Amino acid sequence: MIKISPSMLSCDFSKIGSEAEEISKSGADMLHLDVMDGHFVPNITFGAPVIKSIRHTSDIVFDVHLMISEPLKYAEDFVKAGADIVTFHVECDSDIKETIEKIKSLSCKVGLSVKPETPIEAVFPYLDQIDMVLVMTVEPGFGGQSFMYDQMEKISLLKEKIRETGKTIDIQVDGGINDETVSVAAKAGANVFVAGSAVFGGDYKERISSLRNRATAE
Ligand code: DX5
Ligand code: ZN
After folding, report:
1. 96-123: buried (b, 16+ CB within 10 Å) or exposed (e) per residue?
2. Which of 4, 8, 10 is the pocket-test mutation for ligand 1 (most atoms within 8 Å of CB)?
3. By CB neighbour count within 10 A (0-12 exposed, 13-18 middle, 19+ buried), where does 50 fall?
4. pLDDT (tens digit, 9 = 90+) per residue, 97-140?
5. Is the beta carbon of 145 within 6 A of some atom in ligand 1?
6. Neighbours of 52 (CB within 10 A)
7. Is 128 a catalytic residue?
8. Strand order in the sheet with 170-174
């Protein structure tokens, strides 16, 4: 199933609550919330209190992307703040299995992400326990970067591996997604599309529907 997850990193932070509400009324399936700690990535965004403060604006799925070094230490804060799915990086400093188990024990879905230089095989040992794999299509840290076409091969490999498991696992792409690249990623096998600048740079409803139509056409 195709899902569009606008990234709040590109919203107007002075009115993040009403931006979240407007996105959820504009046909989005999820709301992507980028948490950066200035250590795992060279940028700092927001933490659990900010997410908690906008939870009341809608019941849309909160798709929390943790770009932090120690997800195990903070996972519970994000689930309590209202995350429906918590995605963390396989390159982090926490124990991966323990972090997955922690998030699941809180009745929250789990995603595991790979940075562009990490082979997709790094997530294979965990496929049985997770709900989503996020294949980064830019170096994590900033919005507005260019899509890395060379990541598509990883998606095809992952899709094949998921088929072997017989499980339903979403494949998410994040970074540089626009009307052109959404088609490329969908063709490769992705089904969840994060888009920051492409959504917030125009009319939200029109942008989300255009991305959805293009992904569905593949
Ligand atoms: C980057 C973040 C992305 C970012 C995408 O590290 O994970 O979610 O907001 O922004 P765009 O869609 O502008 O590339
Ligand atoms: Zn993200």
Report:
1. beebbebbeeeebbbbbbbbeebebebb
2. 10
3. middle
4. 999 999 999 999 999 999 999 999 999 999 999 999 999 999 99
5. yes
6. 15
7. no
8. 3-6, 192-195, 170-174, 132-136, 109-114, 85-89, 61-67, 30-36
| Residue 43 beta carbon below 6 angstroms from any ligand 1 atom | no
The minimum-distance atom of ligand 1 relative to the CA of 65 is 7
| 191 contact partners, CB below 8 Å, separation of at least 6 | 1, 2, 3, 170, 171, 172, 215
What pLDDT was estimated at residue 108? Answer: 98
82: nearest Cα among 114, 115, 49: 49
Q: Residue 155: pLDDT band by 50, 70, 90 thresholds?
A: very high
Q: Is 36 helix (H, G, I), strand (E, B) or coil?
A: strand
Local confidence band at 142 (pLDDT 50, 70, 90 cut-offs): very high
Region 156-184: what's the mean pLDDT? 97
Question: Which residue among 29, 131, 170, 174 is the active-site one?
Answer: 174
- Number of Cβ within a 10 Å radius of residue 64: 26
Threshold 0.85, pTM exceeds? yes
Task: Determine if ligand 1 sits within 6 Å of the CB of residue 115.
Answer: no
The token pair at 91 is: 């390159």
Selecting among 34, 63, 131, 170, the annotated active-site residue is 34
Catalytic, 34? Answer yes
